[in-house]
């Protein structure tokens, strides 16, 4: 499309009861730096550029249920995080404040839950 406007994905945004608290977790997990910080909105910048992560305070946040169940708040998106050592990455995530989900659908993937209940996957790339 020659007349299409220039579009650039800048971030994925996660809602939480406390944006600063959830951003602090992902900062510990990923080691990314804060580029914007207010009580309602925090942005973590990806090293070397690219899309970052944003966090928005949502007082009525309802954590998704993993695995999905009828009638429950469903996950609509999740983060995939490539790792070089799955066991070490899981322990690092736990130390940062994550929990490991009871249900694990694949051997080379570990589904974890951040402190606001968002699932994220640690995985070994092919």
Number of helices: 2
CATH 4th-level superfamily of the largest domain: 2,3-Dihydroxybiphenyl 1,2-Dioxygenase, domain 1
Total strands: the figure is 8
Query: Strand share of the residues?
Result: 25-35%
For the record, the count of structural domains works out to: 2
GO molecular function, one term: lyase activity
Keywords: Lyase
Pfam family, one: Glyoxalase_6
Domain VOC: 8-126
Describe this structure in words.
This protein is an alpha/beta fold. It has two domains: 1-61, 2,3-Dihydroxybiphenyl 1,2-Dioxygenase, domain 1; 63-126, 2,3-Dihydroxybiphenyl 1,2-Dioxygenase, domain 1. Helices cover 18% and strands 31% of the residues. The protein has two helices and eight strands; from the N terminus they run E-H-E-E-E-E-H-E-E-E. The chain has helices at residues 19-30, 86-96; strands at residues 11-16, 33-38, 41-45, 52-57, 79-82, 99-100, 109-113, 119-123. Strands 1-4-3-2 form a four-stranded mixed sheet, covered by helices on one side. The protein has a four-stranded mixed sheet with strand order 5-8-7-6, covered by helices on one side. A hairpin with a 6-residue loop joins strand 3 (41-45) and strand 4 (52-57). The longest helix is centred in the N-terminal third of the chain and has 12 residues, at 19-30. The protein is globular.
Features:
VOC_core; 8 strands; 126 residues; 2,3-Dihydroxybiphenyl 1,2-Dioxygenase, domain 1; lyase
Question: What's this model, at a glance?
Answer:
InterPro entries: Glyas_Bleomycin-R_OHBP_Dase, Glyoxalase_6, VOC_core. GO terms for molecular function: lyase activity. This protein has 126 residues and is α/β, with parallel strands linked by helices.
